[in-house]
Amino acid sequence: MGRISNALRVRAATARHRGGSVRCPLCELDFNTFKDDWNRPNALCWRCGSHERHRAQWLLFQRRPELLDDAGSLLHFSPEWCLRRKLEARGDLRYVTTDLDTTQDADLRLDITALDIADDAFDAVLCSHVLEHVPDDAQGMSELHRITAPGGFTLVMVPLAMEREHTYEDPSITDPADREREFLQSDHVRLYAPDIAARLRAAGFDVETVDMAAELGDQSTRYGLLHSDLIFLCRPRWR
Ligand SMILES: [Zn+2]
After folding, report:
1. Which segments in the chain show pLDDT lower than 50?
2. Which of 130, 136, 151, 212 is deepest in the core (most CB within 10 A)?
């Protein structure tokens, strides 16, 4: 019953907000505006719930189709429904999901710092908004590197403090309220700056930093993108 009424609510909101100002590339629908999120306006797709960062990822895959076309397998951490349904629909991809949260539907329950996965197992890995929760992120990045096949990629996104030069972390801050104040959310263990790229390089990746809002220029407003949603496209360097 709850699921049905929610579907009806989404359908009604989708119809009510159709317009010509913004576009969700995942739904391929146009709206007058995106839905406000708790901390920012014009953020979420009325239909699929995509955030700015999900649209940025999908636009990257649309602009560089070889990223997915060349991948036979993809591991998706904490899979967001809006991306998951698009990736599942591809018949050419062995698509595997993993989530530590047992309330979430996923194929695997994996600890990113100790992945029960063979070396080079996946051609593509999506790891968005995960590492800011992981105390030993160097170990997590090392594991991502280990399971990414040569010639493949791992896509990393994290909440970024663009104004900061250096990532801010302090392991002595453990109280949820303190973490929320210092790191934006009660279950975050640090506040990354764009220098996360250096950490990913240290784990053995070549890192390309993609600013989809800059790449798309005037079009970025139409897709509701943010410059702070940098995509770190990581390709294994060694081996
Ligand atoms: Zn959408």
Report:
1. none
2. 212
